[in-house]
Design a protein that fits this description.
Elements: E1 2-5, E2 16-21, E3 24-32, E4 41-52, E5 54-57, H1 60-66, E6 72-75, H2 77-83, E7 89-91, H3 95-104, H4 113-143, H5 150-182
Antiparallel strand pairs: 1-2, 2-3, 3-4, 5-6, 6-7
Length: 185
């Protein structure tokens, strides 16, 4: 990804760029002010760097202190050697670019091997626990006394209701017969 370089010096700010590829700073196009060179160069040159870099977030206090409107500072030893110790490279990165850089550099906790193995352990433990609970439940069902199926319970309750109604009919019939015997009308 090609990003514009923001320097604290307004006359050079925004004219230069850097190229970032995965976790490497590939090249820098801009001025140099290094002890390595004989004199300070104000004409832009392209430098091939091809080393890793670090990105740090700037808060509002840092932006006021450094007098720049950038979101992040980019640190690289070779780039600092080319530019000099006092010149810093600032870039504007949106949230997606920051997430991409951190993901490539494996800076998220989910990317560590320990977290991955822990998640795998929990999944395997959950599956084995589920299978064990299902097996124990089946064993307990076979060992328990069988219950009456619902159809038989319904038949029994209907028979009880029929028995009660026949008893009531018999009682009413006996009362009627008693009345007929006592009153022959």
């Amino acid at each position: 990804m090609l990003k514009k370089v923001i320097l604290a010096d307004k006359k050079y700010s925004g004219k230069f760029h850097i190229t970032l590829y995965k976790d490497k700073l590939i090249n820098y196009y801009g001025i140099s002010n290094s002890r390595f060179f004989k004199e300070s160069n104000t004409e832009p040159k392209e430098f091939s760097i091809n080393t890793t870099f670090e990105v740090y977030k700037l808060d509002k206090f840092d932006q006021k202190e450094h007098k720049v409107k950038a979101s992040h500072i980019l640190r690289n030893e070779q780039l600092e050697f080319i530019l000099g110790d006092r010149i810093r490279v600032y870039v504007n990165l949106n949230i997606f670019e920051v997430i991409r850089i951190k993901w490539i550099k494996k800076q998220y906790l989910i990317q560590t091997k320990e977290i991955k193995t822990d998640i795998l352990k929990y999944i395997i433990g959950g599956v084995l626990g589920f299978i064990g609970a299902m097996a124990i439940q089946k064993i307990n069902q076979y060992n328990a006394e069988p219950e009456n199926p619902p159809i038989q319970e319904i038949k029994k309750s209907l028979e009880q209701i029929n028995d009660q109604t026949t008893e009531i009919k018999l009682e009413t019939d006996s009362i009627k017969t008693d009345l007929k015997i006592n009153n022959p009308k």
